[in-house]
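User: For my dataset I need records formatted as: sequence, then C-alpha cells, nothing else. Please produce one.
Assistant:
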Amino acid sequence: MNTRGIAIVSLLLAVAVILFHQTAKKAPSGEEASLTNSLNQQIAWKGRRAPNITAELLSKETFSLLDHVGKKVVILNFFATWCGPCKAEMPELIRFAEKHKNDPLLFIGVDASEPESTVQDFVLEQGVPYPVALDRDGHLQKAFSIRSYPTTVLIGADGTVQLYEVGSISNADVAFDALLAPAFAAINAGTGITREAFLENTMSSAEKALPAAPADESKPEEPALDGRAKAIADRMNCPCGCAHTLVECTCKTAKDIKAALRTRDWTGKTDEAVMTTLNREYCMK
C-alpha cells in the first residue's frame, strides 16, 4: 500500500473511533443531572453575601436579616408540608435548634408559598419551636435560588453563606458544628459584620449573577404549555430534586407532570391545590 493509501486508511480509522465514542457516550441520567445541579448551587452560593431579606412570620412578627446578621448565626430551612424528606429531617432540626437555644443562633423555617392554615397545622403537628416564615409570593425562594426542598442555608457572622445544603440533613451536628464554632467566637468577640458593611457588600454582590444551570439538549422537544398549565409550571419546582422549575427541567418526572397539566381536567381546583396534588403524586419518583 502506498503512502496515500495508508493516509486514507488512517483517516477513516480516526473518524470511526470518533463516531464510536460519540454514539457510545451516555447522556447523564436524571439522578446524575440532579446531583450536578445541586452541586452547582452549593458551589455558587458558598462565600456569597446573603441577600438582605425580610419576611412575615406565622407569629405575625417581621423577620429582617439585617436586624440579626453579625449578631447571630442565621439558619434558613426551606421546606414544604408535602415534602417527605422535609418531614424526615424535621425532628433532627428541632433537636439541634433546642440544643442551641441559648447560643447566638437563629433558626428560621421558610415554607414554600403554601396557605397559612396549612403551614400552621404542619408546625403544630411537628412541634416546631423555632419561627416559621410565610413566603407568600416566593420572594425568599427567589432570593436564594431555591428550586428543591428541603434546602438549608447557613449565614455566618460575616454575613456570607457558609452552607447551602440541598436535600435532607440526617445529622445536624456534623452539618453545622464546624461552622458554628468560629462564627460564635466572632460574635462573642463583637467582630461580626456591621449593618452598614452588610448593606454595602450586599448591594455590590447582588450584581454577581449565579451561573445558569446547563441546558439538556439530549431530550426531544415537548409540546409547549400554554395558558393556566404554563402559569403553574412556571411557579412549580420539579419534585425530582434538581435546581429547575417544571418549565426548565427535562427529567422524566417533569415530563410526566407537564403531560398531566396538559391533558387532565383541573377545573374546580386552585393552582395551589393542583401543585399539591402533583407534588404528592410524583414526589421522589
